[in-house]
Amino acid sequence: MPHQQPTADTATDFSGLWVALVTPFRDGAVDHTALAALVRRLADDGVTGFVPCGSTGEAAALDEAEQLAVLDTVLTAAGDLPVVMGVSGYHLGKATAWARKLSERPLAGLLVAAPHYIRPSQAGVLEWFHAIADASTVPVLVYDIPYRTGVTIARETMLALAEHPRIRGIKDCGGDMAKTRAVIADGRLQVLTGEDHQIFATMAEGGVGAIAASGHVQTKRLVRLVRLLAENRLAEARAEWQPLQPLLEMLFAEPNPGPLKALLAHAGELRDELRSPMTRASDGLRERLVALDAKLSRP
């Protein structure tokens, strides 16, 4: 079934469990066969949607043609499920042109990070997001991840961004729970956590879901968790959540997506291959991950 353009009614609801997708490689090239199969499996497991070409997808190591090819593979494999494309950079002219080009695809939205490396003022941060949102014809999610960009988005700036009609939510990796609470209380932006270990806390506080790398593994359990949290069934959600803690900790014990790809490779879903300077997980971590995932998968 072809991927449909989101309607006005559904385009701005980002609640649920989105998977921050890995990019499979085979002998140095993108493995589109593995990527399509992975997306179809995750769709069958009940995820809400997909976010290709973020940090988990090693987007910094993909050129524009590769990113578009990845996006098209994901759109085709996703069927009717929504896709949000990751966008990052520090050259505003290139970023706005890229947003316009991406908007030609049937996307649910763009996930846009603050400009990395250059460390602008808060006024500059506003200009960056406003210009990209103006250039886009699809909704924009603000990716607040200061430990990657070097840019802190202040609470007042985030609330000012909520005034733009196309900016609809945030992927929250800001590490500032007071800011998270303020944005949730304000109500204009949907808050999805991007920190996998914060899924329970953020949703219990009123967040609407997560964009999670860990959604590739133990997927049905994480889908169930997010649904229980959305229904405010906290005791049942806690029973799903607590056994997952060691796995989530282990998945990020070495730079993402190394550990995740090791586990997916063990399951036969892709090759354990990354683009330098990203590296494979250590043998010891891989063995511990495989053992823990097997334990969690037992009935």
UniProtKB/TrEMBL annotation:
<feature type="binding site">
    <location>
        <position position="56"/>
    </location>
    <ligand>
        <name>pyruvate</name>
    </ligand>
</feature>
<dbReference type="InterPro" id="IPR005263">
    <property type="entry name" value="DapA"/>
</dbReference>
<feature type="site" description="Part of a proton relay during catalysis">
    <location>
        <position position="55"/>
    </location>
</feature>
<comment type="subunit">
    <text>Homotetramer; dimer of dimers.</text>
</comment>
<feature type="active site" description="Proton donor/acceptor">
    <location>
        <position position="143"/>
    </location>
</feature>
<keyword id="KW-0028">Amino-acid biosynthesis</keyword>
<feature type="active site" description="Schiff-base intermediate with substrate">
    <location>
        <position position="171"/>
    </location>
</feature>
<comment type="similarity">
    <text>Belongs to the DapA family.</text>
</comment>
<keyword id="KW-0220">Diaminopimelate biosynthesis</keyword>
<comment type="pathway">
    <text>Amino-acid biosynthesis; L-lysine biosynthesis via DAP pathway; (S)-tetrahydrodipicolinate from L-aspartate: step 3/4.</text>
</comment>
<keyword id="KW-0457">Lysine biosynthesis</keyword>
<feature type="site" description="Part of a proton relay during catalysis">
    <location>
        <position position="117"/>
    </location>
</feature>
<dbReference type="GO" id="GO:0019877">
    <property type="term" value="P:diaminopimelate biosynthetic process"/>
</dbReference>
<keyword id="KW-0704">Schiff base</keyword>
<feature type="binding site">
    <location>
        <position position="211"/>
    </location>
    <ligand>
        <name>pyruvate</name>
    </ligand>
</feature>
<dbReference type="InterPro" id="IPR013785">
    <property type="entry name" value="Aldolase_TIM"/>
</dbReference>
<dbReference type="GO" id="GO:0009089">
    <property type="term" value="P:lysine biosynthetic process via diaminopimelate"/>
</dbReference>
<comment type="function">
    <text>Catalyzes the condensation of (S)-aspartate-beta-semialdehyde [(S)-ASA] and pyruvate to 4-hydroxy-tetrahydrodipicolinate (HTPA).</text>
</comment>
<keyword id="KW-0456">Lyase</keyword>
<dbReference type="Pfam" id="PF00701">
    <property type="entry name" value="DHDPS"/>
</dbReference>
<dbReference type="InterPro" id="IPR020625">
    <property type="entry name" value="Schiff_base-form_aldolases_AS"/>
</dbReference>
<dbReference type="GO" id="GO:0008840">
    <property type="term" value="F:4-hydroxy-tetrahydrodipicolinate synthase activity"/>
</dbReference>
<dbReference type="InterPro" id="IPR002220">
    <property type="entry name" value="DapA-like"/>
</dbReference>
<protein>
    <recommendedName>
        <fullName>4-hydroxy-tetrahydrodipicolinate synthase</fullName>
        <ecNumber>4.3.3.7</ecNumber>
    </recommendedName>
</protein>
<dbReference type="GO" id="GO:0005737">
    <property type="term" value="C:cytoplasm"/>
</dbReference>
<keyword id="KW-0963">Cytoplasm</keyword>
